[in-house]
Predict the structure.
Amino acid sequence: MATSVLKRCVTAAVKVNRLSPSLSARRWLLSAAYTDTKVWEAREKDHQNLAELAATMERTYERKLPVSSLTVSRFVDNISSREEIDQAEYYLYKFRHSPNCWYLREWTMHSWIRQCLKYGAREKALYTLKNKVQYGIFPDDFTFNLLIEPYIKDGDFKSACSVVEEVMLQEAFNLPSTQILSLYALGSYLATRPQLIVSEERALGASLLICGLKQDNIVGLSAQLLGNALLGKVEISNGIHAVFKGMPLFWGHGYLDRALAVIERVAAASGDVKLSKDTLDYMNDLLQEMSSTSDSDTSGEESGGEEEEDKKEDSVDENDRAEQAKLPQYASRFKELRSQLESQGKLDSASFQDLVTALAQQNLAAAEKPDLEQYESRVQAWEAERRQLIQREKEMKEKAEQEKQERLAANAAAQA
């Protein structure tokens, strides 16, 4: 169902690949300096025996006592094989479901992702990220970048977009580098002609929209248009609740109206402000597809029988039906706005993928420098905090030992 909508974007994207062989040879975008582990590996080592740590944690849990975040951090930092990744996953899960669950350290999350990448367990990193509520993995922007990049390098754009979805859910599009990588992954995935179910349309739409709002250029505007259009399709087909459920999105109706508002802003703007022509083609195909789809089968590929249809009908209220009734108006307004853009010369012939690629080639290298500087500062702060925890642990152990000796002395004196 989504294939016809994406056809025009895909054709343009394929042309870009043919014209840009250097892009195919350099599908990974981050520099070697960005992904280098030297800064991370230069930290002071805290060598531990994982078997002893595991035994300590098991005894602690058996006694119904909380395991410290420092213990979990040590376990993750001392992983040395793929097998130990699975063991660490278990203890991350146990810690998340313990009284100390809120205290998983940021550096532990970062270390976990790095260890998964180092020992060939990238899918485990993505799994714990997608199940963050169960594992407590909420990485920062830099760590997200480290996980997105290898998926792009391998051409696994669907998984790269799964990571981008988590960035969107965390609303972590703060770094320009994360924005560029995310838009590159999203554009590349759209070029693979994915068969999208409603939940995927919603995730892609939300990611494009929220990330696009961070870019004040043709790529950002085109991403906003694509995002609102995809979310509008979900809204028209399944109701507004299907759009914002579990998403950091505006709850109001009218996502197609917001897509048209993006076009209106470009039409009214002065200067060289444009939209990608193929994003307009995308929305045109989308409107035609929705117009030709009857109310009885708007659930498309996710329709699974009468029971599921009834559930969908229950989720669509009067306001949703009122929005569906506006579809002919949206289609007519879209044609007028498109003609206006064409007459103003505000349609760029470059595809969305072409534009995102150009953005990455022009701006990503410059965006890396402040990231690396911030990362070095963050690692230093993490190390200072870790040393404080180690010192506190040492003091608590000494205090406990002193109290123990005092009790033994008191007992010996009482017996004497």
In short: The CA atoms of residues 66 and 227 lie 44 Å apart. DSSP finds 22 helices and two strands in the chain. The longest strand covers residues 275-276.
